[in-house]
Amino acid sequence: MTREAWVLFAAMSVIWGLPYLFIKIAVVELAPAAVVLSRTALAALVLVPVALASGTLRPALRAWRAAAVFAVLEMAIPWLLLGHAEQRISSALAGLLLAVVPILGAAVTAVLGNRHNVEPVRLVGMSLGVGGVVALVGLDALGGHLDALSVAELLAVALCYAVAPIVVDRQRDRAPAVGTITLAVLLVAVLYLPLGLPGLTSAWPLQADTAGSLVALGLVCTALAFLLFFRLIATAGPVRAVTVTFLNPAVAIALGVLVLAEPLTAGMLVGFPLVLAGSWLATRPSRGSAPG
């Protein structure tokens, strides 16, 4: 990869490891719906001018179905469930459980007929990843660090994250990515106005750490993150770009332990290496595929 690609890769590895910390802080004072509304509304303030200036919003409006599907599967459902789960479990555990996204993505494409994803090495990777989740859940349940509903919600979030790009990729109507993401963010913000605004106004004025977390979620973890990710795809290719998800959980765990003093459990120590290895094996390029 080029120097620019490496810089973007490092930035994305950190930026997409940050949301778990900021969500954990924000949901102490705000309902999850209010967090989703704030995050998407702030992101829209940045993305809409960019999409208008680049001329990508109008094509996205014509292909609105793809944006709507992406909005529901990538933001509207998972961000609400993620906030609800983090009201009861640590941000570190949330980040670690979402490390299974690449494994679920490989499994879904295998079910849909991608013969490369039933190769033995990828099946081994999927099995390792599942074993890592089982070890994580089992050991933490024994240690009393687990909430079953939160685990179910986070696995649903991971499934949404895995399915969203696959479903959008199969849409016949296509539009530039920046326009599609911008429209999706706008749709979620409008959807969450009646759900999140009452909680946001009743909590006003917000505490400084809550307000700062919302700004970081909207401007850095959403608007800036999507713009940088598109650039990373352009410079490094989609296969290498998606590998940033391997490092995000490590960032989430480190921040949770260092900033919020969350426990580093036996389940994390055993489960994370297995999930990481499984994700790498399950998503490695096929022998005959082109790099990047």
Task: Please provide a written account of the structure.
The chain is mainly alpha-helical and 292 residues long. The chain has a domain at 3-99 and 162-263. Helices cover 77% and strands 0% of the residues. It is built from 14 helices and no strands.
Which terms would index this structure?
mainly alpha; disordered C terminus
**Average pLDDT taken over every residue:** 83
What's the number of extended β-strand segments? 0
Largest sheet: none
The poorly predicted ranges are 288-292
Please work out how many helical segments DSSP would assign: 14
Helix content bin? over 70%
Question: What's the order of the H and E elements?
Answer: HHHHHHHHHHHHHH
Strand content is under 5%
Which structural class do the helices and strands define? mainly alpha
Q: Roughly how many Å is the radius of gyration?
A: 19 Å
The N- and C-terminal alpha carbons lie at a distance of 9 Å
Shape: globular
Topology:
Elements: H1 3-15, H2 19-26, H3 32-54, H4 57-62, H5 64-85, H6 91-97, H7 101-111, H8 120-142, H9 148-169, H10 177-202, H11 208-236, H12 238-241, H13 248-259, H14 266-283
Helix pairs in contact: 1-11, 2-6, 2-11, 3-5, 3-10, 3-11, 5-9, 5-10, 6-13, 7-8, 7-9, 7-14, 8-14
